[in-house]
Model the fold of this input.
Amino acid sequence: MASQNPVAEAPNIWAVAQSQFDHAADKLDLDDDMRRVLRVPQRELTVNFPVTMDDGSVAIFTGHRVQHNVSRGPGKGGIRYHQDVTLDEVRALAMWMTWKCACVNIPYGGAKGGVVVDPKKLSIREVEGLTRRFTTEISPLIGPERDIPAPDVNTNAQTMAWIMDTYSMHHGYTIPGVVTGKPISVGGSLGRNEATARGAVFTLLGWAKAQNRSLDGMTVVIQGFGNAGSIAATLLAEEGARIVAVSDSSGGIHDPSGLDPARVGGWKREHGTVVGYPGADSVDNQDILELPCDILVPAALENQITRHNAPRVQAKVVAEAANGPTTPEADHILYDNGVFVIPDILCNAGGVTVSYFEWVQDMQSFFWTEERINESLKGIMDRAFAAVHDMGQRHEVDMRTAAYMVAVARVAEATTLRGLYP
Ligand code: GLU
Done:
């Protein structure tokens, strides 16, 4: 897979996901039959589909929907639009969703979807056409009791509204629970848009508390200024932290005296990138990871912290708002250097947790206050952080291995209790 990281060897992330699983399975002493079941995705669908472009021509796109495991409930996971999407990437992301949902103990399995496309090169109408046709192509797999998509890289609430509408048109009535991350006016949940970032901040507060410290005055570097990264900047600034650098796919900005997240957000809305923000130095997307700071938040794509740059990471804690930003080799280096990693399947699980609340609200047609949502999210994230931290201390393992041990044990237990059909 092509990577945005020029120095990385871009390991195949499906191989990475399987090796992370193998490591946890060893620690749990999981039997061979269970390993063979959990090591592979249960269902994979690849579709090639036509979309009429604005100039009247027809373009063919390729997409995937993968369900890794549905032992604990329906498949759950986002759909991403990106030019580098591959089936292996979607497999890895689906497997990570299984562990993520189990890690925070919500009743879902893991799934993921992706379409090979750079949506920035399409008009809104073309993106809508692509979304509606992709929904149609994967509709044998999805459904509120089967597999529930959500936003991911380059998809948003509008994309989810089109998926919900298309699926509902097929059935002849409105089915909001088929997808989460929708706009509030069509069955979305308060707090969902902020949930990934808010959950990540709860895990950082958990880390700080375990060290008897507070986030007040800590310096923060954020790679990625999309939904997770930009909102994390705002929420961390509210905790008193100082945001010293942020980046997006075009490049980054650095100001050791502190950036105002709201003003940077305004600049990005106006110019399409954070690059050029007045008064800040420019920094590239790789160098940003090596800047001096207390908290590093990778909030972009996979394979960003690798064995090449991990020795130069200066942060005390890495909060993985992105999925798969750290390779296993980099994990070892960070651990040996005393850098505390809050792994993706814990750190960014706030998004899917509020997706779960959205789905529950849709199924009951009864909508909660934002206060109830944020309190419930805090309860789930705090319990998950404590369970993972405790597992890590008891077995003297890093937080990623501990999170996997918590999650894999839950999925293995459900699989064992259900037994094999037929
Ligand atoms: N795409 C997000 C993730 O990777 C959210 C998934 C969801 O809400 O289902 O966790």
The radius of gyration is 20 Å. The longest strand covers residues 58-69. DSSP finds 13 helices and 13 strands in the chain. Confidence is low (pLDDT under 50) at residues 1-8.
